[in-house]
Specification:
The structure is a single chain. With 92 residues, the protein is α+β, with helices and mostly antiparallel strands. The protein has one domain. It contains four helices and four strands. A hairpin with a 3-residue loop joins strand 1 and strand 2. A four-stranded mixed sheet has the order 1-2-3-4.
Length: 92
């Protein structure tokens, strides 16, 4: 089972989240994701921390591509450029 660990730090307009993915073989990858307050309000209304949203976003990504194919650093809305269904599915 793949483990997804998310830690976040608050910045001026949102958060920077560090994501560590560890697969069954013990192989890891590390990613940095920027989440603005506006993104959090749009994609996960009512949450005051993006960790759960980012974790669910990585579950979404890992269902579609290997961890090695996920960008190392990106703004959360970039996912929708590659997967147009992302925002609709992540809000569900």
């Amino acid at each position: 089972m793949t483990e997804i660990e998310v830690t976040s730090r608050t910045g001026s307009d949102g958060w920077t989240c560090r994501v560590l993915i560890t697969d069954d073989n013990g192989s890891t990858s590390e990613h940095e994701v920027a989440v603005t307050r506006k993104d959090l309000a749009r994609l996960a209304p009512g949450l005051d921390d993006p960790a759960d949203l980012v974790r669910r976003s990585f579950v979404f990504l890992l269902a579609r591509e290997p961890k090695e194919s996920i960008l190392r650093s990106f703004d959360l809305p970039v996912i929708a450029r590659y997967f147009p269904e992302y925002e609709q599915e992540i809000r569900a």
